[in-house]
């Protein structure tokens, strides 16, 4: 996936502000934060979006959410709360075609989609 920005972040070709890293998962600050805390959590493996997940990816998705739990504790947003969003496809406005979960936090969120 030579053209994928997030694959380039995973392999170090593009710098990022890393928040968490393990064998399978990377988390880094969003370049264009929409909230005081705006972190992207991605699998190191290239998967385009939720709709491209295979059964073999079930453990990986679990690891992503365990990482989100760890990050929330590490950066001190676990108590006050946060929102996790994954935009999937055109109608949701997904701009980077590498599965990612936005962690948003740091102020009270009034706008609710759901
Ligand atoms: P999407 O709109 O696909 O759900 O989210 C893509 C996110 O990636 C956006 O919030 C955008 O600001 C962020 N982003 C795009 N390119 C880069 C980059 O090179 N570095 C970082 N840290 N974030 C990026
Ligand atoms: Zn990728």
Describe the structure.
By secondary structure, the protein is of the alpha+beta class. The chain has one domain: HIT family, subunit A (2-Layer Sandwich). 20% of the residues lie in helices and 21% in strands. A five-stranded antiparallel β-sheet has the order 1-2-3-5-4, with helices on one face. The longest helix is centred in the middle third of the chain and has 17 residues, at 58-74. It is globular and about 40 Å long. The site of guanosine-5'-monophosphate has 14 residues, from strand 2.
Brief summary of the model shown:
It contains 2 helices and 5 strands, in the order αβββαββ. It has 114 residues and is an alpha+beta fold. Residues 1, 4, 6-7, 46, 98 line the site of zinc ion.
Name a few traits of the molecule.
114 residues, alpha+beta, HIT family, subunit A, 5-stranded antiparallel beta sheet, 5 strands, globular, binds guanosine-5'-monophosphate, binds zinc ion
Distinct ligands, ions and cofactors found in the model? guanosine-5'-monophosphate, zinc ion
- Percent of residues in β-strands: 15-25%
- The end-to-end span amounts to 33 Å
Name the average pLDDT: 96
Q: Please identify the structural class as seen in this structure.
A: alpha+beta
Q: In CATH, what is the homologous superfamily?
A: HIT-like
Level-2 CATH architecture: 2-Layer Sandwich
Helix content: 10-25%
**Order of strands, widest sheet:** 1-2-3-5-4
